[in-house]
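User: Show me a protein chain along with its predicted structure.
Assistant: Here is one chain, sequence first, then structure tokens.
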Amino acid sequence: MITLKGIHKSYGERDRRLHVLKGIDLSVAPGEMVAIMGSSGSGKSTLLNLLGLLDHADEGEYLLDGKEVGRLTENQAAAMRNRKLGFVFQAFNLLPFKNAVENVALPLYYQKVGRRERNKRAEHFLELVGLSERRLHKPNELSGGQKQRVAIARALVTDPAILLADEPTGALDSQTTDDIMDLFKQVHGMGKALVIVTHEADIAAQTERTITLKDGRIATDTAHEPAHVSA
């Protein structure tokens, strides 16, 4: 599903150039649930941006579903991103002036899906994440956990093969974090791959594999039996 070979990424110019990723080799299988950990500055957010086609590598090869994406134009990358990938962010990134249904339906608007059909799909995924009764509420009328559920529904509405999550529980309390991780496991059970950037070891322990970055390189890559959320 995802294969990275010899990925390098730097920012800045000349003597101020910062080498962030230093030869990343990585693969994620279809339906796999993976955590990426590392201290601040280790390169994990840069790596997630590359995986999400929000940035491009300076060197190396990135195969997404068997297709080399490094040479795609911006429009081609955007089209592939909208078809293959879903995103969940720590800050939710919901539009404040739109209600839950409208926020979830937004990616379908960019796919030129008609209003009736996109609202129907949006309501289906809001039901899936347990928020049908809040579908007409705007973000300022929702709790942090509810906002993240809306964001997850939005990520799923285009039926992506891969969900990329950047510190998705970082702004949530422990009980809400457990609820969101249960929801991610439900999504994983639908056959989707998940890549979750986190600094929390207990979140990583609930995935199937933990990749730890240090100074722009993969320090460890460990498969494990996922721990269960305690009731």
